[in-house]
Design goal:
The chain has about 325 residues and is of the alpha/beta class. Helix content is about 40%, strand content about 15%. The chain is built from 11 helices and 6 strands. Strands 2-3-1-4-5-6 form a 6-stranded mixed sheet, with helices on both faces. Helix 5 packs parallel to helix 8 and helix 8 packs across helix 9. The radius of gyration is 27 Å and the shape is elongated. The N and C termini lie far apart (about 70 Å). About 10% of the residues have low confidence. Bound molecules: guanosine-5'-diphosphate. The site of guanosine-5'-diphosphate has 20 residues, from helix 3. Belongs to the SRP receptor beta subunit family.
Length: about 325
């Protein structure tokens, strides 16, 4: 009987609006959601998608490629492939089938556990806006407690920086054929490769990022074949390297005479070498592949499947 009396008394007390009861009730109401938040956020792993960044000069076809992967094949008259003029990069979420198929068209439908998701991030190609693109590559990917990323000066979403898996540098192979576009294109590529080289140079721990030089517009008969795009770019990169380091080379200073990292910082590839080749980037774990293709003009060129397969391998 006494137990029942005790329970009754407790029940009555809990229904009596005394200050103690009110305080306990208030605490429960306020603390329960906070506790629930901590329990849920501790048990749910925070996932960041791997990202692939699209860079390259204006007019190379970056936006067209993004649109193609997002919406499937375009007709050549489609207005969907117009350059986006916004200053902030746009990104789309794509998935690659785990049992990789040969065509992006099949992969686009991949869903469920067999699909690996990633972000394809477009960047503006205009010279004045390139630092945005470059800051994405130099970001170390170390996340601060407040969610910002070390080394990034832009307001890029943290998830796009945290897991940079690959860089696609798009070039217009038809524009390269007349030679005028070569210096500016190579200048941009130099900056991109140097940024990636610096990520791993000097013993820094950063995951190596492979580069695909996508020689676009091969549907046009005026376009240079991928092998020529490669050799022309290598030659021009070598020339830029020589010009940039003119003072240094003339003074006869060798790599051994310099303190680690000093001056050699802006030298791309193997220090002191005469000719530049993309293979020299392997010294810094940066693998460079040059593959030809086209976004527009289906059936008139190799298409975009080889690029898609390259990306799929790196995710
Ligand atoms: P972005 O500045 O790098 O984003 O370049 P865009 O995607 O805006 O492309 C510039 C122009 O090149 C557009 O008119 C596209 O239709 C065209 N273009 C893109 N890819 C190809 C291609 O493979 N072949 C041809 N012939 N034109 C292309």
């Amino acid at each position: 009987m006494t137990v029942l009396d005790d329970l009754k008394a407790l029940f009555e007390a809990s229904l009596t609006p005394t200050p103690a009861v009110l305080t306990i009730g208030l605490l429960i109401v306020l603390l329960a959601p906070i506790l629930l938040h901590f329990i849920l956020s501790a048990t749910t792993p925070y996932t960041t998608l791997p990202s692939v960044v699209l860079v390259g000069p204006s007019g190379a076809g970056k936006t067209a490629l993004l649109t193609l992967f997002e919406r499937g094949p375009l007709s050549s008259s489609s207005s969907a492939a117009a350059t986006h003029t916004s200053q902030t990069p746009s990104s789309i979420e794509l998935s690659v089938s785990a049992n990789s198929t040969s065509s992006f068209r099949d992969d686009l439908d991949a869903t469920g556990s067999a699909a690996k998701k990633f972000l394809l991030v477009d960047t503006p190609g205009h010279a004045k806006l390139r630092r945005h693109a470059l800051s994405r590559l130099t970001a170390s990917g170390t996340k601060h407690a407040n969610g910002s990323i070390a080394g990034s000066g832009t307001a890029a979403p943290p998830s796009t920086l945290a897991k940079l898996k690959a860089v696609v540098f798009m070039v217009d192979a038809a524009a390269l054929a007349d030679g005028d576009a070569l210096p500016s294109t190579a200048e941009y590529l130099y900056e991109v490769l140097l940024a990636l080289q610096k990520r791993v140079a000097g013993g820094k721990k950063a995951a190596p990022v492979p580069v695909l030089v996508a020689a676009n517009k091969l549907d046009l008969f005026t376009a240079l074949p991928a092998a020529l795009v490669k050799s022309n770019l290598e030659m021009e990169l070598g020339r830029i390297r020589k010009t940039r380091s003119k003072g240094l080379l003339d003074s006869g200073v060798g790599a051994d005479d310099l303190a680690a990292g000093e001056e050699t910082d802006d030298w791309l590839g193997e220090y002191g070498s005469d000719k530049f080749t993309f293979k020299q980037m392997l010294e810094f774990d940066v693998e460079v592949d040059v593959i030809g293709g086209n976004v527009v003009g289906e059936g008139e060129g190799p298409g975009a499947d080889k690029w898609w397969r390259w990306i799929a391998e790196k995710i």
